[in-house]
Amino acid sequence: MKPDIIPAIDLRAGRVVRLAQGDYARQTIYPDDPVALAAGYAAAGARWLHVVDLDGAQAGGFANLPVIEALARSGLRVQAGGGVRKVADVHRLLDAGVERVVLGSVAIREPSRVASWLERHGGERFTIALDTRWEEDRWTLPSAGWTQAEARTLDELAPWYAAHGARHLLCTDIQRDGMLAGFNLALYRHLADIAPGLAVQASGGARSVEDIQAAGTAGAAGVILGRALLEGRFTLTEALVA
What we know:
Elements: E1 4-12, E2 15-20, E3 23-29, H1 34-44, E4 48-53, H2 54-59, H3 65-72, E5 77-81, H4 87-95, E6 100-103, H5 105-109, H6 111-121, E7 126-129, E8 133-135, E9 138-140, H7 154-163, E10 168-172, H8 185-194, E11 199-203, H9 209-217, E12 222-225, H10 227-230, H11 236-241
Parallel strand pairs: 1-4, 1-12, 4-5, 5-6, 6-7, 7-10, 10-11, 11-12
Antiparallel strand pairs: 1-2, 2-3, 8-9
């Protein structure tokens, strides 16, 4: 299966950044203007853009909402999140032009509330983000920008969301994020087994077009590309024809 190619822009204080393994102290700032970067991705043939408000993910709120609004006018279909805590936050992003709201911490902490949003707005308007770390022989689900431990596990929540109306699941192996170590293919094969009804987006570690192809073979419906594109490991055009 050929996965959808989804370039990513992570925002902090309005700037394009990347974190290593989700560590806010290990930040790389890129000189690119986020709106110009998105326009370049659109010109190269991308259809979707993944946007993370890292300030919101860490502290709540939408510190980067004006930039997200501008990105939603870039010609790309935007899925965005970071800091979504309540239904009013969902409406703010939808009103800003976001097509899919990415739900991370709230999806881990309050699945019943999220299920009510899925029922109200439909599964196509959300991407459930269950970013995970292998600890103590299980896939744990850290929250709040990957800074807080939670009791629920990936194996518990992925099938639960599949049964409660979710359509899209984004899953990052945190230990590989921003490390250019390749996707954790075993993780995506595992998700295909436990939640076959979800369209899974692979994230964390892409370093080559071969990694994209391998993710598709492992069952991923989409791949998120961040650092590899920003640093020119390969071009978006190469990724799209891989």
